[in-house]
Write a structure and sequence with these properties.
Blueprint lengths: L1 E5 L3 H10 L4 E6 L2 H10 L2 E4 L2 E2 L6 E4 L9 E4 L7 H10 L3 E4 L7 H4 L7 E6 L3 E5 L2 E4 L5 E7 L3 H9 L6 E3 L3 H22 L5 H4 L1 H18 L4 H14 L6 H7 L7 H14 L4 H19 L1
Parallel strand pairs: 1-2, 1-6, 2-5, 3-10, 6-7, 7-8, 11-12
Antiparallel strand pairs: 3-4, 8-11, 9-10
Helix pairs in contact: 6-8, 6-9, 6-10, 6-12, 11-12
Bound molecules: pantoate.
Length: 298
Amino acid sequence: MKIGIIGGGSIGLLFSYYLSMGSDVSIYTRTREQADSINENGLHLVKSGIEHTPAKVTAVPIQEWKGNDDLTVVAVKQYQLDGLISDLKDKAKGSILFLQNGYGHIKLLSELETSEVYVGSVEHGAVRKNGFTVQHNGLGVTRTAIFKGEDDLLRELSTISPSGFPFIIEPDFKEMLIKKLVVNSVINPLTAILKVKNGELIHNPSYFEIFKQMFDECAYVLDLPNREQYFKNLMTVCEKTANNHSSMYKDIENGRQTEIDAILGYLLELSRRKNIKAPLIHNYYHCIKGKEHEREGA
Ligand code: PAF
């Protein structure tokens, strides 16, 4: 299978490294410099402090993307999708797998004419060390589900993927994405504003109060059918990643744009449409936007 991966961030590099073990992988980067550095150095992976044999992939600047791959994995942030979607609409010939957090991108996917569109939820921890090196921290899984079409390529993906990089096919894309949205809505903004590791949210009794209330608001706005199940999942993720800093914490610390619009922005919009009061969602959304504004002003 020919796989094209769009995005040279941590997830794009991680997927390119592992999938190149069983497939012909091309990675499409925003800058020509990054493509050149991957072609010169190979793609490097650091896991448990060990640097693994560099992988051979073809790196190409995104401007030269032709959409010829059997499967295109879109590994950019949700806020970068708008600029890409018309290219995907015009050029993609094969199937597409979207790996964005949140739920706001789902409305864009209906515009695509490709017969197979998939969505995924990544549970790996990864950090980009430089343009051609990724560090694989939290070993997890990638959950995938059909948005439209048949699941043939998803099944192929789960057979060709190497051990240590598993894919799971979930029956319901909505449930899969909403589960992740709940986790990201509670853990990410709270850890970024309180400046704590994920585990502190459940180990510090005062923070745990906010954590529970934030969950309640999300569950109400999303009208979750099975609240206990979602809360249990949230607690499990928080315990498993207790020693990690969330991606939003790291984005704020490093002065980068966050995914707040895709996460709480989506819930805020939903609460307005449903005419529901959601003060914590509203306030944490604006706290994070305020932090982003500070960075822009600096
Ligand atoms: O965004 C993140 O950091 C992760 O999705 C999660 C699960 C919240 C753990 O840090």
